[in-house]
Amino acid sequence: MSLDRIEKLKSFLKENPKDCFLNHALALEYIKAEDDVTAKQYFDINMENDPNYIATYYHLGKLLERTGQRDEAVSIYEKGMAVAKKVNDNHTYNELQSAYEDLVY
Known about the structure:
Helix content: over 70%
Structural class: mainly alpha
CATH architecture of the largest domain: Alpha Horseshoe
Number of domains: 2
CATH superfamily of the largest domain: Tetratricopeptide repeat domain
Distance between the termini: 38 Å
Shape: globular
Mean pLDDT: 95
Low-confidence stretches: none
Radius of gyration: 14 Å
Number of helices: 6
CATH class of the largest domain: Mainly Alpha
């Protein structure tokens, strides 16, 4: 079932490859399919195309944690908190701060 969603999302991305929502959704589908390498590639696309797309920071940080890249996860959470503050998204800021504190303390 997940492969069907992946193929559908990829077809949508052909029309708009910089769509952060589609890239994010595709990354999450790859996580469900246990393909963290490909998931990270789609998160990285979002980071490159729109660093203000704050949903990416939490999920990318969690992926990095899960794959043993602690320092990179800490850095992503810190960057995400700064962006969340900049765009005045307190909910996302709090989520990122909680993930950050769970990892650091």
